[in-house]
Write a structure and sequence with these properties.
The protein is α/β, with parallel strands linked by helices and 283 residues long. The chain has a domain of 197 residues: TIM Barrel (Alpha-Beta Barrel). Helices cover 44% and strands 13% of the residues.
């Protein structure tokens, strides 16, 4: 899984033909990691962008496409039906990574007991993995307890956990990422630059600007670099090719130990979380 990708959620350019063009632009400039989900309502257009890039010479084997199954599709039969529909909508023969989007259930869920729902879903998806329809399986917003419940099945390993991750997240998120690394589970960050609600608050920090000036980089690139130096992948979202190139351009500099320490020690009173997902909060 590439360390830097393109998030496909939650902005006007992640809809309709704009997202198809964005996917195509990103892949043609060398990006290879795409992060999607059913609830983003754009899988059809994302699949079109992937197929067009392949027609223009980008090897499908180099593209790492993630999508996510929401809790209202949890359950063995429901998850099996969801995968068939997702593959048809994307117009692809396989999906590189399928993630359980979060650990909860809702009134639309076909099953009602959260732990059993997650386990049934996992068993259905690992069967599809055995058929080659899915290459890898992961979770999002899960904590150690919830992940151990899936690992206890003794089947397919959890290969990725996607969580909100930036210097201002609560300690729980940092501890969850550490647990994942100790158990051989890759971590992907969403909200690395604050997303729409917190981006201005984060990117205008004087410390970030000062670090960026020393390296000839933007505040956003400093945040992304901080994340990858913690061995966490990033998936910033944009439809602007210039910003895509900037987000991919984080591998030609390294933050010093002092710079990392400065960003590692945000005071507790300064911690913030945009999306409100707390690992292990759901039953």
């Amino acid at each position: 899984m590439p360390m830097s990708g393109l998030g496909l959620c939650c902005r006007p350019s992640a809809n309709g033909d704009a997202v198809r063009q964005g996917v195509l632009d990103f892949l043609l400039m060398g990006g290879r990691h795409l992060d999607d989900a059913q609830i983003y309502s754009n899988q059809r257009e994302v699949g079109m962008g992937v197929r067009q890039a392949v027609e223009l010479g980008v090897p499908r084997s180099e593209i790492f496409l993630t999508t996510k199954i929401p809790p209202d599709r949890f359950g063995f039969e429901a998850a099996s039906e969801w995968l068939s529909a997702a593959l048809q909508e994307l117009g692809l023969e396989y999906i590189d990574l399928v993630i359980l989007h979060w650990a909860g259930t809702n009134e639309l869920s076909p099953c009602s007991e959260p732990k059993a729902c997650r386990q049934e879903t996992w068993m259905a998806l690992q069967r599809s993995r055995g058929k080659g329809q899915i290459r890898h399986l992961g979770v999002s917003n899960f904590g150690p307890r919830q992940m151990e419940e899936l690992l206890a099945l003794g089947g397919a390993p959890i290969e990725v956990n996607q969580i909100e991750y930036h210097p201002w997240v609560p300690s729980l998120h940092l501890e969850t990422a550490q647990w994942c690394h100790e158990h051989g589970i890759a971590v992907t960050a969403y909200g690395s630059m604050g997303s729409s609600a917190l981006s201005q608050q984060m990117l205008t920090q004087d410390s970030l600007r000062q670090i960026g000036d020393r390296h000839g980089k933007s505040s956003g690139q400093v945040l992304l670099r901080w994340t990858v130096q913690h061995n966490v992948s990033v998936i910033p979202g944009t439809g602007n090719p210039k910003h895509m190139a900037q987000n991919l351009g984080i591998f030609d500099f390294t933050l010093t130990g002092g710079e990392m320490a400065m960003l590692d020690h945000v005071p507790l009173e300064g911690r913030m979380l945009h999306f409100g997902h707390y690992p292990d909060l759901n039953p």
